[in-house]
């Protein structure tokens, strides 16, 4: 049977374990879409190309397998650039495939013709173009690069004429790609640093989750009695109900965790990527003693000159068990202070208090996965919602784009149909992507959107007031998000009192439809997040 070049790309995806591709096809991708379907891969038609990338990258962060999206030429390719950048800065493996014109049509003025590889180069780890000689190898090479540390987006251009060609190559054995997980050769200095410290503190990053090293990191924390802070993307590795957990840190105004960093005599960064929480914030003069344990060497950034231990995180952690003598948690008083801090709610003057809303969400969360959109609610969640495990709260802390929450929750629901997937989003963020409710409806995905509706760009409004001592400046007309949801065929619930929120969350969880909970939130306390 004759194979087209598009069939070889589809085979490469299937051999990698890809089950679906998100996107919006076009005339230049018809052969690729046909090959996906004939090879048993699902083509999920989204309402926007950016949403396709968000679905793929959040699903990849959730299950640690590569996500894939497909768009057409011109506007399709341009629209997905934001999603590619988000995957790269959030360290999520994503293959971005775009249709492309035949080579001879790209050398003269032509509609929808842009230099795609130059466009994607600044926001991806690499850009490739499929050729008729070996499209399988090129696709595999692109996926290898996307999944290698540090993971991110890789672009693969699919010229329409090449995809339509019969493939005339020969089959070759593909060598599997494996990253080394060996222990670093010399751990002596690291052992000495840990043993000599009186107040060591772990700062756990997303690399621990990517490496699947959660259990060994927890064992290291417990056997050495070292309190653990997390970046927002590393949250949940040591859950807050664990006596050694200090939850997360992500802003200089997070006073309690910043005090812990100040008092520590050794910071042990584990699976930490420097842009997750810039060292210039937590080590401004560069004077802290820092031990860097990661699969990746330290990046060259200000205020970060650690002692590096590079290798597989799990085996390194296994070699560092029980170094310090038994003792108490030196940061226990700070932990108790933090526990009191995240429970402190107050009556809302005009809507529901954010802390009270999060406490209700935490009670009803169960085994849910929460994908945060971007806005003031993201800062509230990061500080006040300790997740029960490392995959239950997903926050973007790289590109940090508004409008990714609903698409991300759909990506999780596709990846794991047995989990209750939801997004916490703002009214402005949901309006950027609300058409994806129809994507959820078409695929019977009962995702929940908890909308913090303040009829404003609440976080920017607060920053404006703090910077210029005047405001408000970014108010919007209030949108009835429940009615908008219902107009699209989804379920809508309005919540304007805290006493209604628990029942609304329970109702959404029982529903067979995507559900939008329109919660009228009081953002008068936003200032406390930033100062």
Q: What this model shows, in words?
A:
There is one protein chain. With 531 residues, the protein is α/β, with parallel strands linked by helices. The protein folds into three domains: 5-164, 3-Layer(aba) Sandwich (Rossmann fold); 188-325 and 333-337, Rossmann fold; 342-530, 3-Layer(aba) Sandwich (Rossmann fold). It is built from 24 helices and 18 strands. The strands form three sheets. It has a six-stranded parallel β-sheet, sandwiched between helices. A six-stranded parallel β-sheet has the order 9-8-7-10-11-12, sandwiched between helices. The chain has a six-stranded parallel β-sheet with strand order 14-13-15-16-18-17, sandwiched between helices. Strand 13, helix 17 (376-384) and strand 14 (393-394) form a beta-alpha-beta unit. Helix 1 packs parallel to helix 7 (135-147) and helix 3 (49-63) runs parallel beside helix 5. It starts with a helix and ends with a helix. The mean pLDDT is 92.
Would you summarize the structure shown here?
With 531 residues, this protein is an alpha/beta fold. Helices cover 39% and strands 16% of the residues. β13 (369-372), α17 and β14 (393-394) form a beta-alpha-beta unit.
Chart the SSEs and their pairings:
Elements: H1 5-15, E1 20-23, H2 30-38, E2 42-45, H3 49-63, E3 67-71, H4 75-79, H5 81-89, E4 94-100, H6 116-120, E5 127-129, H7 135-147, E6 153-159, H8 160-164, H9 188-196, E7 200-204, H10 206-210, H11 214-224, E8 228-230, E9 245-248, H12 255-263, E10 266-270, H13 279-282, E11 290-294, E12 307-310, H14 313-319, H15 332-341, H16 354-364, E13 369-372, H17 376-384, E14 393-394, H18 405-415, E15 421-426, H19 427-431, H20 436-442, E16 448-453, H21 458-468, H22 481-487, E17 491-495, H23 498-510, E18 515-520, H24 527-530
Parallel strand pairs: 1-2, 1-3, 3-4, 4-6, 5-6, 7-8, 7-10, 8-9, 10-11, 11-12, 13-14, 13-15, 15-16, 16-18, 17-18
Helix pairs in contact: 1-2, 1-7, 3-5, 3-18, 11-14, 12-15, 16-17, 16-23
């Amino acid at each position: 049977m004759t194979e087209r070049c598009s069939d070889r790309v589809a085979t490469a995806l299937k051999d990698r374990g890809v089950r679906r591709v998100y996107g919006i096809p076009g005339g230049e991708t018809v052969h690729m879409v046909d090959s996906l379907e004939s090879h048993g891969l699902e083509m999920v038609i989204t309402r926007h190309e950016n949403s396709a990338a968000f679905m793929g990258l959040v699903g990849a962060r959730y299950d640690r397998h590569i996500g894939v999206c497909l768009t057409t030429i011109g506007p399709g390719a341009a629209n997905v650039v934001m999603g590619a950048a988000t995957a790269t800065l959030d360290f999520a493996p994503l293959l971005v495939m775009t249709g492309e014109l035949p080579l001879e049509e790209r050398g003269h003025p032509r509609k929808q013709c842009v230099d795609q590889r130059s466009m994607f180069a600044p926001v991806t780890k690499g850009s490739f173009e499929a050729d008729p000689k070996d499209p399988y190898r090129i696709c595999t090479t692109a996926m290898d690069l996307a999944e290698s540390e540090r993971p991110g987006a890789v672009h693969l251009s699919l010229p329409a004429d090449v995809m339509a060609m019969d493939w005339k190559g020969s089959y070759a054995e593909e060598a599997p790609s494996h990253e080394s997980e060996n222990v670093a050769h010399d751990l002596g200095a690291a052992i000495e640093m840990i043993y000599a410290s009186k107040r060591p503190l772990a700062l756990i990053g997303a690399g621990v989750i990517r490496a699947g090293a959660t259990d060994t990191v927890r064992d290291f924390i417990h056997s050495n009695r070292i309190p653990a802070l997390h970046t927002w993307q590393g949250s949940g590795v040591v859950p807050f109900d664990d006596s050694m957990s200090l939850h997360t840190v992500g802003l200089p105004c997070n006073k309690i965790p910043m005090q812990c960093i100040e008092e520590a005599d050794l910071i042990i960064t584990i699976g930490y990527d420097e842009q997750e929480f810039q060292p210039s914030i937590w080590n401004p003069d560069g004077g802290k003693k820092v031990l860097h344990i990661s699969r990746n060497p330290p990046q060259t950034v200000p205020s970060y000159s650690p002692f590096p231990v590079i290798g597989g995180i799990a085996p390194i952690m296994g070699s560092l068990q029980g170094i310090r003598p038994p003792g108490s948690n030196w940061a226990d008083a700070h932990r108790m202070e933090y526990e009191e801090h995240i429970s402190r709610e107050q009556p809302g003057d005009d809507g529901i208090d954010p802390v009270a809303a999060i406490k209700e969400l935490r009670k009803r969360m169960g085994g849910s996965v929460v994908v945060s959109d971007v806005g003031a609610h993201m800062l509230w969640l990061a500080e006040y919602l300790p997740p029960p495990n490392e995959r239950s709260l997903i926050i973007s802390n790289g590109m940090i784009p508004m409008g990714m929450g609903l698409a991300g929750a759909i990506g999780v629901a596709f990846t794991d149909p047995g989990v209750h997937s939801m997004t916490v989003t703002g009214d402005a963020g949901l309006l950027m992507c609300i058409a994806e409710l129809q994507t959820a409806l078409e695929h019977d995905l009962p995702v929940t959107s908890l909308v913090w509706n303040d009829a404003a760009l609440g976080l920017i409004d607060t920053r404006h007031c703090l910077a210029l001592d005047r405001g408000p400046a970014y108010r919007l007309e209030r949108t009835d998000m429940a009615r908008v949801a219902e107009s699209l065929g989804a379920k809508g619930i309005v919540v304007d009192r805290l006493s209604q929120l628990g029942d609304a969350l329970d109702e959404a969880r029982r529903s067979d439809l995507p559900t939008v909970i329109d919660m009228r939130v009081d953002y008068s306390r936003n200032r406390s997040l930033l100062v």
